[in-house]
Design goal:
The chain is an alpha/beta fold and 271 residues long. The protein has helices at 29-36, 62-66, 71-79, 82-93, 99-108, 117-125, 132-141, 154-164, 192-206, 223-228, 239-244, 256-260, and strands spanning 9-16, 20-25, 57-60, 145-153, 168-172, 174-177, 180-185, 213-217, 231-235, 247-249.
Length: 271
Protein backbone atom coordinates (compact mmCIF):
# COMPACT_ATOMS: atom_id res chain seq x y z
CA UNK A 1 0.00 0.00 0.00
CA UNK A 2 2.90 2.36 0.73
CA UNK A 3 4.32 1.61 -2.70
CA UNK A 4 0.96 2.21 -4.37
CA UNK A 5 0.85 5.73 -2.92
CA UNK A 6 4.38 6.75 -3.83
CA UNK A 7 5.82 6.29 -0.35
CA UNK A 8 8.83 4.14 -1.34
CA UNK A 9 8.75 1.48 1.41
CA UNK A 10 12.07 0.40 2.89
CA UNK A 11 13.35 -1.66 5.81
CA UNK A 12 10.89 -3.47 8.07
CA UNK A 13 11.81 -4.25 11.69
CA UNK A 14 10.04 -5.28 14.89
CA UNK A 15 10.05 -2.93 17.87
CA UNK A 16 8.26 -5.67 19.82
CA UNK A 17 7.85 -9.10 18.22
CA UNK A 18 4.33 -9.69 16.89
CA UNK A 19 3.08 -6.48 18.54
CA UNK A 20 4.67 -3.32 17.10
CA UNK A 21 6.61 -2.87 13.88
CA UNK A 22 8.47 -0.14 12.03
CA UNK A 23 8.10 0.16 8.28
CA UNK A 24 10.44 2.78 6.84
CA UNK A 25 9.36 4.78 3.79
CA UNK A 26 11.05 7.44 1.75
CA UNK A 27 8.58 10.24 1.15
CA UNK A 28 4.95 11.40 1.00
CA UNK A 29 4.16 11.49 4.73
CA UNK A 30 0.75 13.06 4.12
CA UNK A 31 -0.14 10.30 1.66
CA UNK A 32 0.87 7.62 4.14
CA UNK A 33 -1.19 9.28 6.86
CA UNK A 34 -4.32 9.65 4.80
CA UNK A 35 -4.22 6.35 2.93
CA UNK A 36 -3.17 3.94 5.68
CA UNK A 37 -5.29 5.18 8.58
CA UNK A 38 -7.83 2.57 9.57
CA UNK A 39 -7.23 0.25 6.61
CA UNK A 40 -5.73 -2.64 8.61
CA UNK A 41 -8.34 -4.19 10.88
CA UNK A 42 -7.57 -3.92 14.61
CA UNK A 43 -4.20 -2.25 13.93
CA UNK A 44 -3.25 1.37 14.64
CA UNK A 45 -0.96 3.08 12.12
CA UNK A 46 1.13 6.10 13.08
CA UNK A 47 2.98 7.64 10.14
CA UNK A 48 5.65 10.12 11.20
CA UNK A 49 9.08 11.47 10.43
CA UNK A 50 12.04 9.57 11.80
CA UNK A 51 13.72 12.71 13.14
CA UNK A 52 12.69 13.82 16.66
CA UNK A 53 10.76 10.61 17.07
CA UNK A 54 11.43 10.41 20.80
CA UNK A 55 9.42 13.28 22.27
CA UNK A 56 10.58 15.60 25.05
CA UNK A 57 7.16 16.95 26.04
CA UNK A 58 3.78 15.25 26.39
CA UNK A 59 0.60 17.24 27.02
CA UNK A 60 -2.43 15.03 27.70
CA UNK A 61 -6.15 15.40 28.29
CA UNK A 62 -7.62 13.60 31.31
CA UNK A 63 -11.27 12.56 30.93
CA UNK A 64 -11.78 9.63 28.54
CA UNK A 65 -8.06 9.74 27.79
CA UNK A 66 -5.83 9.26 30.83
CA UNK A 67 -8.86 7.99 32.75
CA UNK A 68 -11.74 5.90 31.47
CA UNK A 69 -14.65 8.16 32.50
CA UNK A 70 -15.96 11.72 32.25
CA UNK A 71 -15.79 12.94 35.86
CA UNK A 72 -18.61 15.45 35.49
CA UNK A 73 -20.94 12.77 34.15
CA UNK A 74 -20.09 10.54 37.10
CA UNK A 75 -20.74 13.36 39.59
CA UNK A 76 -24.10 13.93 37.94
CA UNK A 77 -24.93 10.27 38.46
CA UNK A 78 -24.81 10.83 42.22
CA UNK A 79 -27.41 13.56 41.80
CA UNK A 80 -29.61 11.38 39.61
CA UNK A 81 -29.32 13.13 36.25
CA UNK A 82 -26.36 11.50 34.50
CA UNK A 83 -28.22 10.90 31.18
CA UNK A 84 -28.99 14.60 30.75
CA UNK A 85 -25.45 15.70 31.62
CA UNK A 86 -23.79 12.95 29.56
CA UNK A 87 -25.78 14.04 26.50
CA UNK A 88 -24.46 17.60 26.87
CA UNK A 89 -20.92 16.29 27.41
CA UNK A 90 -21.10 14.23 24.23
CA UNK A 91 -22.26 17.22 22.18
CA UNK A 92 -19.53 19.42 23.64
CA UNK A 93 -16.82 16.84 22.92
CA UNK A 94 -18.08 16.61 19.36
CA UNK A 95 -17.78 20.39 19.00
CA UNK A 96 -21.49 20.83 18.46
CA UNK A 97 -21.96 23.34 21.30
CA UNK A 98 -19.77 25.90 23.06
CA UNK A 99 -17.49 24.32 25.67
CA UNK A 100 -17.83 27.06 28.30
CA UNK A 101 -21.61 27.26 28.04
CA UNK A 102 -21.89 23.49 28.20
CA UNK A 103 -19.63 23.32 31.24
CA UNK A 104 -21.57 26.02 33.09
CA UNK A 105 -24.87 24.35 32.29
CA UNK A 106 -23.73 20.95 33.59
CA UNK A 107 -21.99 22.28 36.70
CA UNK A 108 -25.03 24.34 37.70
CA UNK A 109 -26.93 21.08 38.15
CA UNK A 110 -24.48 20.03 40.87
CA UNK A 111 -25.38 22.95 43.14
CA UNK A 112 -25.95 21.87 46.72
CA UNK A 113 -24.19 18.52 46.54
CA UNK A 114 -21.89 17.85 49.48
CA UNK A 115 -18.26 18.54 48.60
CA UNK A 116 -17.20 15.13 49.91
CA UNK A 117 -18.93 13.64 46.88
CA UNK A 118 -15.72 14.42 44.95
CA UNK A 119 -13.68 11.96 47.01
CA UNK A 120 -16.43 9.35 46.94
CA UNK A 121 -16.79 9.68 43.18
CA UNK A 122 -13.05 9.51 42.60
CA UNK A 123 -12.63 6.41 44.72
CA UNK A 124 -15.62 4.60 43.24
CA UNK A 125 -15.63 5.65 39.60
CA UNK A 126 -12.22 6.87 38.38
CA UNK A 127 -10.02 4.27 36.72
CA UNK A 128 -6.68 4.95 35.05
CA UNK A 129 -6.65 4.07 31.35
CA UNK A 130 -4.64 1.04 30.30
CA UNK A 131 -1.08 1.97 29.40
CA UNK A 132 -1.19 5.44 30.98
CA UNK A 133 1.22 4.69 33.82
CA UNK A 134 3.95 3.02 31.74
CA UNK A 135 3.61 5.76 29.12
CA UNK A 136 4.16 8.62 31.54
CA UNK A 137 6.75 6.98 33.75
CA UNK A 138 8.79 5.72 30.80
CA UNK A 139 8.77 9.07 29.02
CA UNK A 140 9.90 10.74 32.25
CA UNK A 141 12.67 8.16 32.68
CA UNK A 142 13.86 9.16 29.20
CA UNK A 143 13.96 12.82 30.21
CA UNK A 144 10.58 14.05 28.92
CA UNK A 145 8.25 16.42 30.75
CA UNK A 146 4.61 15.31 31.09
CA UNK A 147 1.71 17.70 31.70
CA UNK A 148 -1.95 16.87 32.34
CA UNK A 149 -4.39 19.51 31.04
CA UNK A 150 -8.09 19.05 31.69
CA UNK A 151 -11.35 20.83 31.19
CA UNK A 152 -12.37 18.80 34.24
CA UNK A 153 -11.70 19.65 37.85
CA UNK A 154 -8.67 20.09 40.08
CA UNK A 155 -10.07 17.83 42.80
CA UNK A 156 -9.89 14.96 40.31
CA UNK A 157 -6.97 16.04 38.11
CA UNK A 158 -4.47 16.59 40.92
CA UNK A 159 -5.08 13.07 42.24
CA UNK A 160 -4.92 11.48 38.81
CA UNK A 161 -1.72 13.35 37.96
CA UNK A 162 -0.06 12.19 41.18
CA UNK A 163 -1.16 8.58 40.69
CA UNK A 164 0.10 8.37 37.12
CA UNK A 165 3.24 10.46 37.65
CA UNK A 166 2.70 13.71 35.71
CA UNK A 167 5.02 16.65 36.38
CA UNK A 168 2.20 19.20 36.32
CA UNK A 169 -1.60 19.28 36.28
CA UNK A 170 -3.78 22.15 35.06
CA UNK A 171 -7.57 22.01 35.37
CA UNK A 172 -10.71 23.89 36.36
CA UNK A 173 -11.78 24.67 39.92
CA UNK A 174 -15.25 23.87 41.23
CA UNK A 175 -16.34 26.49 43.74
CA UNK A 176 -17.32 25.23 47.19
CA UNK A 177 -19.26 27.17 49.79
CA UNK A 178 -20.04 25.91 53.32
CA UNK A 179 -19.02 22.38 52.41
CA UNK A 180 -21.24 22.14 49.33
CA UNK A 181 -20.77 22.63 45.59
CA UNK A 182 -22.00 26.09 44.60
CA UNK A 183 -22.79 25.12 40.99
CA UNK A 184 -20.14 27.36 39.41
CA UNK A 185 -16.61 27.09 38.01
CA UNK A 186 -13.86 29.62 38.67
CA UNK A 187 -12.55 31.75 35.80
CA UNK A 188 -10.49 31.71 33.67
CA UNK A 189 -11.45 28.32 32.30
CA UNK A 190 -9.12 25.63 31.06
CA UNK A 191 -10.64 25.40 27.60
CA UNK A 192 -9.33 24.58 24.13
CA UNK A 193 -7.34 27.81 23.85
CA UNK A 194 -5.78 27.34 27.29
CA UNK A 195 -4.71 23.80 26.46
CA UNK A 196 -2.94 25.06 23.36
CA UNK A 197 -1.39 27.91 25.35
CA UNK A 198 0.01 25.51 27.94
CA UNK A 199 1.57 23.39 25.19
CA UNK A 200 3.21 26.52 23.75
CA UNK A 201 4.31 27.74 27.19
CA UNK A 202 5.89 24.43 28.14
CA UNK A 203 7.60 24.13 24.75
CA UNK A 204 9.07 27.61 25.08
CA UNK A 205 10.24 27.03 28.66
CA UNK A 206 12.00 23.83 27.59
CA UNK A 207 13.41 25.35 24.40
CA UNK A 208 11.74 22.72 22.23
CA UNK A 209 10.88 22.63 18.57
CA UNK A 210 7.33 21.68 17.64
CA UNK A 211 8.58 18.33 16.32
CA UNK A 212 9.74 17.38 19.83
CA UNK A 213 6.23 17.56 21.33
CA UNK A 214 3.36 15.10 21.65
CA UNK A 215 -0.27 15.77 22.56
CA UNK A 216 -3.18 13.38 23.07
CA UNK A 217 -6.89 13.82 23.71
CA UNK A 218 -10.34 12.61 22.68
CA UNK A 219 -12.65 15.60 22.17
CA UNK A 220 -13.18 18.83 20.26
CA UNK A 221 -11.64 20.97 23.02
CA UNK A 222 -8.35 19.10 22.44
CA UNK A 223 -8.21 20.05 18.76
CA UNK A 224 -6.00 23.19 18.95
CA UNK A 225 -3.31 21.51 21.07
CA UNK A 226 -3.44 18.39 18.88
CA UNK A 227 -2.89 20.53 15.80
CA UNK A 228 -0.09 22.49 17.48
CA UNK A 229 1.91 19.45 18.63
CA UNK A 230 4.60 17.74 16.60
CA UNK A 231 2.61 14.51 16.90
CA UNK A 232 -1.07 14.92 17.72
CA UNK A 233 -2.99 11.76 18.69
CA UNK A 234 -6.75 11.20 18.87
CA UNK A 235 -7.42 8.53 21.51
CA UNK A 236 -10.75 6.84 20.75
CA UNK A 237 -11.40 10.30 19.35
CA UNK A 238 -14.54 12.12 18.31
CA UNK A 239 -14.90 12.76 14.54
CA UNK A 240 -13.79 16.41 14.67
CA UNK A 241 -10.59 15.50 16.49
CA UNK A 242 -9.87 12.50 14.30
CA UNK A 243 -9.81 14.75 11.26
CA UNK A 244 -7.30 17.09 12.90
CA UNK A 245 -4.99 14.48 14.44
CA UNK A 246 -1.82 13.08 12.91
CA UNK A 247 -2.91 9.60 13.99
CA UNK A 248 -5.64 7.77 15.89
CA UNK A 249 -5.35 5.17 18.64
CA UNK A 250 -8.51 3.09 18.26
CA UNK A 251 -7.27 -0.36 19.26
CA UNK A 252 -4.03 -0.30 21.25
CA UNK A 253 -3.76 1.15 24.74
CA UNK A 254 -1.77 4.26 25.64
CA UNK A 255 1.52 2.36 25.89
CA UNK A 256 1.45 2.21 22.08
CA UNK A 257 2.79 5.76 22.16
CA UNK A 258 6.03 4.30 23.53
CA UNK A 259 6.27 2.03 20.51
CA UNK A 260 5.53 5.07 18.34
CA UNK A 261 8.66 6.63 19.83
CA UNK A 262 10.69 3.50 19.11
CA UNK A 263 10.90 2.38 22.74
CA UNK A 264 10.63 -1.44 23.20
CA UNK A 265 9.06 -3.03 26.25
CA UNK A 266 12.43 -3.91 27.78
CA UNK A 267 13.17 -0.19 28.10
CA UNK A 268 9.91 0.78 29.81
CA UNK A 269 9.94 2.08 33.36
CA UNK A 270 8.37 -0.28 35.87
CA UNK A 271 4.90 0.76 37.06
Amino acid sequence: MLAEHGCEPGEISWIEADKAADIAFGKELDAANSKLRGVIEAVDVIAQRKSDRTKKLLVADMDSTMITVECLDELADYAGFKPQVAAVTERAMRGEIDFAAALDKRVSLLKGLSADIITRCHDARVSISAGAIPLIRTMKSHGARCVLVSGGFTLFADRVAAEIGFDRAVSNILTIESGALSGTVERPLVDAAEKERILAEESKDLGLERSETLAIGDGANDKPMIEAAGLGIAYRGKPLLREAADACLDHADLSALLYAQGIPRKDWAEA
